[in-house]
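User: Fold this; tokens only.

Assistant: Input:
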Amino acid sequence: MGAHMARNLIKSGYLLVVNDVMPAAVEELKKEGAEVAGTPAEVAARAKLIVTMLPSSPHVREVYSGNKGIFQSVQAGSLLIDSSTIDPAVSKEMEQIALSQSTAFMDAPVSGGVLAARDAGLTFMVGGDEARFSEAEKILSCMGKNVVHCGGVGTGEAAKICNNMLLAISMIGVSETMYMGSQLGLEPKLLAKVLNMSTGRCWSSEAYNPCPGVMEGVPASRDFEGGFGASLMLKDLGLAQDAASSKKVCIPLGSMAHQIYRMMCNAGFGQKDFGYTFKFLQQKKD
């Protein structure tokens, strides 16, 4: 995700200073003109507009407030945009540290997946000071087609958590439906066509169908490699579960989706695309 996003910024004319815990991850970007920094702190010393994309809350804390983190050398007036999907409380925590150093922090998680990141078609859900939203919108628009201001810091994460809970539920539903249809004698491509011109249509059926052979260019067509990992979906569903518990909100389908993805990851499929539910549910039946 991050590499595709960075590449689109280079295409838009931005001079980048990049850093990744895995040096190999930035080699291609270096060949395309990006400068490489050894630490997040070095990035902050050389740039006042910073975008981060990280796996989870602990990673965000380390990159921003760790010993070699951004806050060690951030410049006054900087704009820090975090596109990770994390606990909204951690985003608010980072905001408070940023404010104490005369900088602005925004949470801007994304939706759309790897293909949308490649094609600059992401949706950004932004939480932060409205006075600096236009500044953030300018750079985010180079990487996405929709940039939505959701409110204060943490609201972008809240919107993303809600979206991904629904996405997980719909992916499980499409997986069940496609498998049941095949067992009832329906050709998968035909069933997908019917669903996508009927009321069952959704993103998981139309743009990311999990049944192998139905669509080209999606993880299901390459043994569920690449794409959005099941372990990341499990993490996001855990965030949704925590949020629901804190607000005493009943989410029975969200809880069931969380359980299914936990089972799938525990069975060793955490690195597979989250659409592997099609195969996993089939295996559970067999």
